[in-house]
Design goal:
The structure holds 2 protein chains of 2 kinds. By secondary structure, chain A is an all-alpha fold. Chain A is built from 11 helices and no strands. Chain A folds into 2 domains: 36 residues; 212 residues, MetI-like fold (Orthogonal Bundle). The radius of gyration of chain A is 22 Å and the shape is globular. In chain B, strands 6-7-8-3-9-10 form a 6-stranded mixed sheet, sandwiched between helices. The longest helix of chain B is centred in the C-terminal third of the chain and has 26 residues. Classes of the chains: A mainly alpha, B alpha/beta. Chains A and B meet through α7 and α8 of A and β6 and α2 of B.
Chain lengths: 251, 261
C-alpha cells in the first residue's frame, strides 16, 4: 500500500464509521427520535434538490455573495496588509485596531448592513467581505513585516522604484502566507454570507436551510446542510490545489 | 600613483551612530581594473562603509565620487553582492540575473541575451531554469555575482561574498572571480575578514582599524596576474599574509575586547 492510498482509506473508513454510528442511532430510536433522519432519507432529499434543479439558483446566489465579498476583501486586505507590513509606524498605529476588530463577531454589523444595503445580495456581500478581510489583512501584514530585508536592499541597489519593489519583491515574496490568508478568508466569506442568509434573506443556501427548518422539513434541511458542506469543501480543495502549485516558489 | 581619474573615490567618509563612531574619516581611491580589498576585525564598520558607497546607508559626512562625479543614493554604475543569500527564491537563475535589467525597462530580448552571456561567464550553463532551492550555496553566490555584473557596473562592491561558504568552495570561487575579473576587466572593491582571500584576490589590501574604523595601512600585493589559487603556495604569499596579520593582530584584539564588553 503506498503513501497516498493508505491515509485515503483511513479517511474513507472514518467517514463510513461515522455514518454507521449515525444510522445505528436512528435505527435504535434511542436518541433524537424524529429529528435525525436516516442517511438514506437525506440522500434522497439531496438527490431531489439536485435533480429538480431546485438547489442551483440558491447555490449560485451564495457563491456570488461569497466571491464578490471575498474579492473586495482580498484587494483591500492585501494592499493594506503589505502597507502596514512595510511601514512600522503605520503598523504600530493600526495593527492593534485591526486585531481588536478581528476578534469581534462580525454578525453584530449585520443590522447596519441590512439598513444600509437592503435585504438582498448586497448586505450578504458586505458580511462576506468583512469576514474575509481580517484573516487576509493580518496574514499579509505579518508576511510583509517578516520579509528578508536583503531583498529590499537588492531592489534598491539596482534602482527599483517603490512600485516595482511592491510588485516584484513584496508580492512574490509574501505569496504563500498571503495565499494562506486568502484561504482562511474564503472560508470566512462563506460563513459571513450564509450567516446573513440564515437571518434575513430570500435566496441562498442559508435561506433554504432556515426555510426547511421553519417548515420542519428535516431531511431537506440536512440535505441542504450537506450540499453546503460540499460546496465549502470543494472551494477549499481548489484553493489547496492552487497553493500546491504556488509552492514551486516556496522556500 | 596612476594618472587617470579613479573609478571610485571616497573622501573623508564618517558614520556616527548615537554614542558610537563606526567609521572615522576614511578616504580611498580605486582605479580602473583594480581589485582592492578592505580587511578589518569584525565590527570595524567595513560592511557599513560598503553600504554607504552603494548608497544603501546614509553617511554622517564625506563624499563618494564615481569617475569624478559626486553620487548620492544608489547608482547604476555601482553593483553590489552581499554575504547573505540574496537571490530571489521565486525566480529562476535566468530570471534572477535579469532582475536589474527588468527594473530598468530593458527589452526582453536584450535581457535574455545579456543574461545568457553572463551565465556563461560565471559558469552556470545548464542551470538557467533552476530555482535557488535547487542550487548549492556556491552556485547561489555565482547567481548573485552575475545579477550584479549584468548591469555592467563601473565598480562592483562585494561584501564578504564567500563568507558563508566552506574554505575549499571559497578558494575555488575566488579563483573563478579572478578569471571573471580578468575576462571583463571589472573593477572590484571587496570586503573580507579572511587574510588569505584578500591576498589571493587583490592588487591592494586596505587594513582597517577596530572601531572607530579608519585606514591603518595599505599593502600592495605584487603577485603577477593572471593568478590562480596556486599563488597560495608562493613564498611571497605567505609573507604577505604574515605582514597583514601583524597589522591586524592588534586591531583584532581591540575588536575582541569591544565585542566582549
Amino acid at each position: 500500500m503506498n503513501r497516498v492510498t493508505k491515509p485515503f482509506l483511513i479517511q474513507a473508513g472514518t467517514v463510513l464509521l461515522c455514518m454507521m454510528i449515525w444510522e445505528a442511532i436512528v435505527e435504535s430510536r434511542l436518541l433524537f427520535e424524529g429529528i435525525v433522519p436516516s442517511i438514506f432519507e437525506i440522500m434522497k432529499a439531496a438527490w431531489l434538490q439536485i435533480s429538480t434543479g431546485f438547489i442551483f439558483p440558491h447555490l449560485l446566489v451564495t457563491m456570488y455573495e461569497a466571491f464578490v465579498g471575498f474579492a473586495l476583501a482580498a484587494c483591500l486586505g492585501i494592499a493594506i496588509g503589505i502597507a502596514l507590513g512595510v511601514e512600522p509606524f503605520l503598523r504600530r498605529v493600526f495593527e492593534p485596531l485591526i486585531l481588536y476588530f478581528a476578534a469581534t463577531p462580525k454578525i453584530i454589523l449585520y443590522p447596519i448592513f441590512l439598513m444600509m444595503l437592503g435585504a438582498k445580495f448586497e448586505s450578504k456581500m458586505a458580511m462576506a467581505g468583512v469576514s474575509a478581510f481580517f484573516p487576509i489583512v493580518i496574514n499579509a501584514t505579518v508576511a510583509a513585516a517578516g520579509i528578508d530585508r536583503i531583498f529590499i536592499k537588492v531592489a534598491k541597489s539596482v534602482g527599483a522604484s517603490s512600485f516595482q519593489t511592491f510588485t516584484r519583491v513584496y508580492l512574490p515574496s509574501t505569496l504563500l502566507p498571503v495565499f494562506t490568508g486568502m484561504r482562511l478568508g474564503m472560508g470566512a466569506a462563506f460563513v459571513g454570507a450564509i450567516l446573513g442568509e440564515l437571518k434575513v434573506s430570500n435566496a441562498g443556501l442559508g435561506f433554504i436551510i432556515i426555510q426547511a427548518f421553519n417548515h420542519f422539513r428535516i431531511p431537506e434541511m440536512y440535505a441542504s446542510i450537506l450540499l453546503t458542506f460540499f460546496l465549502a469543501a470543494s472551494v477549499n480543495f481548489a484553493m489547496t490545489l492552487m497553493s500546491a502549485r504556488l509552492r514551486r516558489f516556496a522556500y | 600613483m596612476k594618472d587617470s581619474a579613479p573609478i571610485l573615490e571616497i573622501r573623508n567618509i564618517s558614520k556616527e551612530y548615537p554614542g558610537v563612531t563606526a567609521i572615522d574619516n576614511v578616504s580611498l581611491k580605486v582605479h580602473q581594473h583594480e581589485f582592492v580589498s578592505i580587511i578589518g576585525p569584525s565590527g570595524c564598520g567595513k560592511s557599513t562603509l560598503l553600504e554607504i558607497i552603494a548608497g544603501l546607508l546614509a553617511k554622517t559626512s564625506g563624499e563618494v565620487f564615481i569617475k569624478g562625479h559626486a553620487v548620492k543614493n544608489t547608482h547604476a554604475s555601482i553593483g553590489i553582492v552581499f554575504q547573505q543569500e540574496s537571490i530571489f527564491p521565486w525566480r529562476s537563475t535566468l530570471e534572477n540575473i535579469e532582475f536589474g535589467l527588468e527594473m530598468h525597462g530593458v527589452s526582453k530580448q536584450e535581457r535574455r541575451n545579456k543574461s545568457r552571456r553572463m551565465i556563461e561567464i560565471v559558469g552556470l550553463q545548464g542551470f538557467e531554469d533552476r530555482y535557488p532551492g535547487e542550487l548549492s550555496g556556491g552556485m547561489k553566490q555565482r547567481v548573485a555575482i552575475a545579477r550584479a555584473l549584468v548591469m555592467e557596473p563601473e565598480i562592483l562592491l562585494m561584501d564578504e561574498p564567500f563568507g558563508a561558504l566552506d574554505e575549499q568552495t571559497r578558494i575555488i570561487l575566488g579563483e573563478e572571480l579572478l578569471r571573471i575579473q580578468q575576462e571583463i576587466g571589472q573593477t572590484i572593491l571587496f570586503v573580507t575578514h579572511n587574510i588569505h582571500e584578500a591576498v589571493q584576490l587583490s592588487d591592494r589590501v586596505v587594513v582597517i582599524t577596530a572601531r572607530p574604523g579608519k585606514i591603518k595601512a595599505t599593502i600592495s600585493v605584487d603577485i603577477e596576474r593572471p593568478r590562480t589559487s596556486e599563488v597560495i603556495a608562493l613564498e611571497k604569499f605567505g609573507k604577505l599574509v604574515g605582514k597583514i596579520w601583524m597589522l591586524l593582530r592588534e586591531e583584532s584584539l581591540k575588536g575582541f575586547k569591544q565585542t566582549a564588553l
